[in-house]
Design a protein that fits this description.
By secondary structure, this protein is mainly α. 53% of the residues lie in helices and 0% in strands. The chain has one domain.
Length: 77
């Protein structure tokens, strides 16, 4: 997950609010397999991890809906 979270952080960390940074840090503590399952839609994201920053990470890598994690697949703006 370092690749997934790290790419997002490299691109967006400066834009995150203090609350979002707290959510990001909490997400970093979750098991990698869980994060991957939530990002791909294999498992439902628990409410305490289904935060604005998690949705930003999912959008950054997957798009609007989970289903095909493609690392670094941020849409062109």
């Amino acid at each position: 997950m370092d690749l997934v979270l790290g790419q997002f952080a490299d691109a967006r960390i400066a834009e995150l609010s203090d609350e979002e940074l707290d959510d990001y840090e909490q997400l970093m503590e979750a098991p990698d397999r869980d994060i991957f399952s939530w990002l791909t839609g294999e498992a439902e994201t628990p409410g305490n991890f289904d935060t604005a920053v998690f949705r930003q990470i999912r959008e950054f890598h997957v798009g609007e809906t989970p289903g095909g994690l493609s690392v670094g697949a941020e849409k062109a703006k």
